[in-house]
Fold Molybdopterin molybdenumtransferase.
Amino acid sequence: MISVSEALALIKTHTSQLPKVEIPLRDSYGCFLVEEQVAPISSPSFRQSAMDGYAFRCGEIYELEVIGECKAGDALEFDLQDNQAVRIFTGARVPDQADTVIMQEHVEVNGEKISIQKMPEKTTNVRAIGEQVQVGEQLLPAGTKITESIIGFLAGFGISEVLVFNKPKITLIVTGNELQEAGSPLKPGCIYESNAIMLESALKSRGFDSVQILKVADDLEATKKSVAQGLEADVLLISGGISVGDYDFVNEALQANGVQEIFYKVNQKPGKPLWFGKKGGKLVFALPGNPASSLTCFLIYALSALKIMSGNPDVDLNFQTGVLKHRTFNKFGKTLFILGTEKNGEVEIYPKQASSMLISYALGNALVLIPENLEVLEAGETVQFLAVNRN
Ligand SMILES: Nc1nc2c(c(=O)[nH]1)N[C@H]1C(S)=C(S)[C@@H](COP(=O)(O)OP(=O)(O)OC[C@H]3O[C@@H](n4cnc5c(N)ncnc54)[C@H](O)[C@@H]3O)O[C@H]1N2
Ligand code: MOO
């Protein structure tokens, strides 16, 4: 059985970025830039008034004659003299012969004349060309994740298309005869299905919005068919049916579909029977069906692969450290992933930790890693954890 770090290394080795694609900026939220973005124009591209007021030439003359008006969108020029001003509004192009804008609250208006109460400094309220960015300067480096502010920023330069890495399409197959949808009283021997909606939410909240869900009974032929269909996606996630029971058909169905096994079983708890494989560039994660096992394997392994595929440069698990509030045991000789709450750097582990339970996951905010070689950790010892449930 391989270790957690060996499993992560194998996933990295076998995962590649998806092809680059030019897409409309409006569809690019959450994607990663393939190359740096360079400013096609300066911003602002002309000298803009930052206030509603009067454009004039800064000097010693306090009484000015208003000879015209410039509103946003105008591109007017005036033969402006030192004793003259132009009425101007926020965002309007400042005439070339003016160097300063005084806000209207700072002048007295007498018919066609204004009198300046206090002379502002030269260039006050005039946004200089390229004040934000000069043409040709870098706007964003390659690898930037596109957010709403970045969409607004790029749109402000007239950019309407961006070159990004494709986001993976995902199929999620949920296996099990015992699984029942919410909405009707439980039948004897059945449980409410919860992994599909949980993993779909985990994917969508991270921007992986192309998710197809297939549900399949514990039947070899049906499982083979679902796997064949699921392999049309870039990543196939399967929940359940990967252990060694007589009705666990996932391994066989994957082999029958020509999926190459990279590893099966990791020395961890929960999630020991995790299976990872590939067919061409398509990846398959068969996640153990127990809910905490499924979610843990998703967060630690599948998510790392999805990040690599989508061009996210930040693929390593972002462990933080905290101090244990009380003694904690590891009787299993495996890496443990257990839930707790971290507050001000102190980590309290929950008592109910089992792969079949989600209660600690639902209440906790820290997925704590206990190394496989440590049998006891004393209160006050440092542990590593991943933040969960925090966004
Ligand atoms: N003889 C052995 N038995 C088991 C071993 C083993 O090494 N030898 N490993 C155990 C471990 S560890 C795990 S984890 C599970 C993994 O089993 P499967 O991946 O085959 O999952 P299932 O048997 O289908 O389900 C396990 C458990 O989870 C419930 N489940 C499944 N799917 C869902 C779902 N979508 N929503 C909610 N709950 C789900 C299912 O009812 C079972 O209780 O194998 C152990 N056995
Ligand atoms: O590895 Mo399983 O996920 O412990 O029950």
About this structure: Residues 174-176, 178-179, 191, 193-196, 239-244, 248, 270, 272-273, 288-291, 293, 355-356 surround LQZAQKY5 (ligand 1) (CB under 6 Å). The first helix runs from residue 4 to 14.
